[in-house]
Design goal:
Chain lengths: 342, 523
């Protein structure tokens, strides 16, 4: 068995345990939040009998252990129950809302890597000089304000004062694109509608930038710090003595070892964006899962809370596994230590 | 590389700007708070009302600009005690093409009662039977004068279509009805996402004429942020805001030329005093608070412009315009001398009060009212604490008088436009311990007046009953009547909404002003 496969299997095993732990924790926490979900769902005018009927239907009168048992049994059948908030199966809601959030987060993640790493390399290569100072000031700005502040600022600048980008939504109202994957950039291509594809990209720019800015700053600063430390290593001095070009030294000898710690943080940031996307989704009226998740928590919609948290936890774990595999691929010492440990 | 990136960005912007197609039809774009409930047996909130009033029809409609109701799907009705017989209008078809029959009306009532959600509490103790294909009879367990008014909350469902979509596990077709329209309304639901957006288009086969200036298509978006709505309106990409925009945003938009639409006469802002908890179990203590409250400042706090406000001056327990309300010029005012006199007769010394003033966490305006009350009552030497309660916790706390705060702040409106649906749930002794009734009032005279208001039978009898009720409530002071509520919406100059701008055209029912067939698109 290859070392990468061993890492994969071990991470999958841990992920299953983490998912069970998360489900138990959220199941308990969701029931501690004040308020009767049946009463909230039925509205203020419901009679006591109506509330009691819904409570019985949802097994809310039974011990919490029994309730968890019902939940696990339903989950095994792929049934997360109905949302009291949207009156639809939770699975239907997740299938509808998750692609919008994933599309946004993936584009933001691509921006984070595409801009964060080059900026970090640029600053490290010119450390102590003006490009370094400019990058450090800019990245400090981006990390010091949360995504929703950037969302409002970007909207005001580039949609209100300079109407260059759309204010809200994922696609212009006039396009009617058949839903296949839920990712509009993909569905528009499947429909072979280039104008709609460009429009979907156009709608993605502001929310994705707002979501990515903090991560870009963090990735740039981390990459710079790691590379500056690497530049002090003796093997860099030797490469310089051999007369290698600065760009070759930066690319081959300074950047690669610095990438490993940056990659871990970028992976965590990427997964965290799933949750952080809420306010960006709210500002840009982006019909995503994060916005749905907050709405169902406020309404104490137990089934939907469980479904949303499990999906976000699962995505978090998948991203972490991918990052771990990439690090193992980049760093032979990790591969070898895993082989030795097993 | 930077130049190339900028060029690519500019090219993308230009390409998509050129690619943006123009609308061939008139499109009305508005927003409300999620979710949009499309099932008529579950609908209760404002967004739901907008959907239902457009996708479905009812037997009667409120008259515009005046009290009373007129036939809609019905051609007329007769009343014999507790029995109401309706004749249905000829030639009405549902959006599916099925004809309207008396069976559909019976099914709609039975479905509402069976599901027991939304506004089904309005239809307890009622049976319906189809006398023939075009005649339906309602038999009430007891006389209920506001019955005709409550029928505006009984949307008529296409029984045939619903039954076609029912399953053994879903006898009332809840899955289908939550995602599709099954009515005869002036607008057809074309897509519905309860959290994001509902789209509707005009029903070309509607049984009443629809003016050409009415919108061809409607996009109702849910839960847009205030900054988003402001930008969309400024860009001409939105037409009517929800009523939940912060006043300062409404003011800014109005200053930029947007019009302000209003809907009034259906509810009020009530500051409820727990009459079962000392010291507010004594009427003199309550009257001290009622007279110490600064009504003028309260109105300033909800003003949007010099001319438009989210509230109008209160005159008593019943909003101006409803049965039994006081004249509009008989406004409540602060009277500190009277407050001090009542306080002298209050058995608890001011220093010993320690009032709990609660506010609902989801309604930031109430925090400002809490601070106003704290300052007002402090002038009498009364100490108080402000407590923030999320709605879910509030509904639990009010379940018994001991845990109910001394003071709770609630917006209540009459869902049918009739004072019965505003006042009975608040003040009748049989309905304590709900979000509407944290006063725990138990007064035989109030109960008698409320029952007389239900019994009627004539409008004069009802008017007299509610006048008595208003007077009695002012004597008992279970509530500080903060202000008569007026919902305000910001609209672009692309639309004209007579039902929300001309009192002569107003319906007097929350949400009915958004009957899209009566809205005019100006461009």
């Amino acid at each position: 068995m290859s070392s990468v496969l061993r890492i994969l299997l071990r991470r999958l095993g841990i992920s299953v345990i983490v998912l069970i732990g998360v489900s138990m924790l959220i199941f308990a926490i969701a029931r501690i939040i004040p308020g009767d979900p049946a009463r909230i769902a039925l509205g203020p005018n419901a009679t006591a009998e109506q509330v009691a009927a819904i409570r019985a239907e949802m097994h809310l009168d039974e011990p919490i252990v029994a309730q968890y048992g019902y939940f696990v049994a339903d989950l095994m059948r792929g049934d997360l129950g109905d949302s009291l908030y949207t009156n639809r199966p939770v699975v239907t809601d997740i299938v509808e809302f998750l692609p919008a959030t994933l599309e946004l987060v993936i584009v933001a993640g691509i921006m984070m890597v595409s801009f964060g790493l080059p900026l970090g390399i640029l600053a490290a290569r010119h450390r102590g000089r003006w490009p370094d100072h400019v990058v450090r000031i800019l990245t400090l700005l981006t990390v010091s304000a949360p995504s929703f502040v950037w969302a409002v600022i970007l909207m005001l600048l580039f949609a209100f004062y300079l109407p260059l980008f759309p204010v809200a939504g994922r696609l212009d109202d006039a396009y009617d694109i058949a839903r296949v994957t839920g990712f509009l950039t993909v569905d528009t291509l499947i429909a072979r509608d280039l104008r709609a594809f460009l429009d979907a990209l156009h709608h993605l720019v502001l929310p994705a930038v707002a979501l990515a800015l903090s991560g870009i700053g963090q990735a740039a600063r981390l990459t710079r710090a790691n590379m500056v430390e690497t530049y002090d290593k003796p093997y860099i001095e030797m490469a310089q003595a051999y007369g290698f070009s600065p760009s070759r030294i930066a690319r081959r000898y300074a950047f690669k070892p610095s990438l490993i710690p940056s990659l871990t943080i970028i992976g965590l940031d990427f997964a965290a964006m799933l949750g952080n996307a809420f306010l960006v989704e709210a500002v840009f009226a982006w019909p995503g899962l994060s916005r749905y998740g907050v709405a169902v928590i406020l309404r104490k919609d137990l089934n939907a809370i469980m479904g949303t948290v499990l999906v976000i936890a699962l995505t978090f774990l998948v991203v972490n596994i991918i990052v771990d595999l990439m690090i193992a691929f980049l760093n032979p010492r990790i591969r070898h230590s895993t082989r030795g440990a097993s | 590389m930077t130049n190339r990136f900028l060029l690519a960005g500019a090219a993308l912007t230009a390409a998509t700007a050129l690619a943006s197609p123009a609308f061939a039809q008139s499109v009305l774009r508005l927003d409300e708070v999620a979710v949009g409930e499309l099932d008529p047996a579950k609908a209760s909130d404002y967004a739901d009302s907008i959907l239902i009033f457009n996708a479905y029809d009812t037997l009667v409609l409120p008259k515009q600009g005046e009290p009373g109701h007129e036939p809609h799907l019905a051609s007329g009705w007769e009343v014999d005690g507790a029995v109401y017989t309706f004749n249905l209008r000829d030639g009405v078809t549902f959006q599916s093409g099925n004809p309207l029959r008396a069976d559909d009306v019976v099914y709609s009532l039975e479905r509402m009662q069976a599901l027991g959600q939304g506004l089904s509490h309005l239809f307890g103790g009622i049976e319906a039977e189809a006398v023939d294909e075009t005649t339906v009879r309602f038999i009430l367990e007891q006389t209920y004068a506001p019955f005709i008014a409550s029928l505006i909350r009984l949307p008529i469902v296409d029984k045939t279509l619903a039954e076609e979509n029912a399953t053994p596990d879903d006898a009332w077709a809840e899955v289908f009805m939550s995602a599709n329209g099954a009515g005869s309304g002036a607008y057809v639901v074309t897509s519905h996402n309860p959290q994001a957006e509902t789209r509707m288009e005009v029903n070309e086969d509607y049984f009443l004429p629809i003016d050409d200036s009415a919108p061809d298509e409607v996009q109702l978006k849910y839960s847009l942020e205030a900054a988003t709505v402001r930008t969309l309106l400024a860009q001409g990409e939105h037409d009517i805001s929800s009523q939940w925009l912060p006043p300062e945003v409404m003011r800014a938009l109005a200053n930029d030329g947007a019009q302000l639409l209003t809907e009034s006469g259906t509810g009020a802002f009530y500051i409820k005093l727990n009459t079962a908890k000392p010291p507010l179990d004594d009427v003199n203590c309550r009257l001290a608070l009622v007279n110490a409250f600064d009504y003028g400042t309260a109105l300033q706090m909800v003003a949007i412009t010099d001319d438009v406000s989210s509230g109008s001056a209160p005159t008593g327990a019943i909003p101006v315009g409803m049965f039994g309300s006081n004249p509009a010029d008989q406004i409540l005012t602060r009277d500190l001398d009277a407050a001090r006199a009542y306080l002298d007769d209050c058995p608890t010394a001011p220093a010993d009060w320690d009032l709990e003033i609660s506010w609902i966490a989801e309604v930031p305006l109430e925090e400002r009212f809490s601070l106003l009350m704290q300052a007002n009552f402090a002038e009498l030497g009364i100490s108080s604490q402000i407590e923030t309660l999320p709605w879910a916790l509030f509904t639990e706390r009010v379940a018994n008088p001991e845990s109910t705060p001394h003071i709770s702040q609630i917006f209540v409106n009459a869902v049918t436009g009739d004072p019965d649906t505003l006042l009975y749930g608040m003040y009748h002794s049989s309905t304590p311990g709900t979000w509407q009734s944290p006063e725990y009032l138990n007064d035989p005279e109030v109960d008698a007046a409320l029952e007389a208001g239900r019994r009627g039978p004539g409008e004069d009898d009802r008017e007299a009953a509610y006048t008595d009720l208003n007077d009695r409530l002012m004597e008992l002071a279970p509530t500080i009547y903060g202000y008569d509520r007026q919902s305000v919406f910001v609209a672009s100059d692309r639309v004209s909404v007579p039902a929300l701008s001309d009192p002569e055209m107003a319906f007097g029912v929350d949400g009915m002003g958004f009957s899209f067939r009566l809205i005019e698109m100006i461009e």
